[in-house]
Amino acid sequence: MEKKTFSVTGMTCSACSAAVERKIGGMNGVKSVSVALLQNTMTVDYEEKDVGEREFSEALKQIGYGLASQPKKEEAKKRENAMARRLWWSVIFLLPFLYCSMGHMIGLPLPDLLNPHHYPVYFSLFQAVLSIPVLWLNRSYFIHGFSALIRRVPNMNFLIAIGAGGWCSNRGRYGDGGICFDEKKYAGG
């Protein structure tokens, strides 16, 4: 019987760690498995003659995760720095977006061209232009989320992708500017 800790790549939420535990825990020769999401590690108590690192790696690959025998702090730091860069670039695009989409509600001035009551199309297009870079910067949520769904192990990335995708798909149809919103129809008039 051997007990070993492995670094697991690709986990982002508790659904991910639960999927890893189910997959590895269901393998022949595995006595117990414990996944630590915050450390991106799993500790496995297993019989070396029945199962090993190669089998763990293949099993995790089937559900969209990776395996390394030693945790690599450089890789974790690199991912953390990349996430911080995406966050800051997203904020840079989202602040003018927030001003444009919500500012008029609290009396902040908008250029007349972006006035949702006079030019609803420009108002919505400006918001779309500002949201496209944010979606592109954070496309990994869509890629990993939908691939997790295809593998039948949906996770937090999938929920984020659904939320962001649903919001974006409704901006043009039901946008704040009333592009396709007939107030009389819904007010009963």
Q: Would you give an account of this structure?
A:
The protein has 189 residues and is an alpha+beta fold. The chain contains seven helices and four strands. The protein has a four-stranded antiparallel beta sheet with strand order 2-3-1-4. Strand 2 and strand 3 (41-46) form a beta hairpin. It is elongated. The N and C termini lie far apart (76 Å). Mean pLDDT is 82; it is low at 172-189.
Provide a quick synopsis of the model.
The protein is an alpha+beta fold and 189 residues long. The protein is 56% helix and 13% strand.
Index terms:
4-stranded antiparallel β-sheet, alpha+beta, disordered C terminus, 4 strands
- The number of strands is 4
Radius of gyration: 23 Å
Cα separation of the termini? 76 Å
Along the chain, the helix and strand elements come as EHEEHEHHHHH
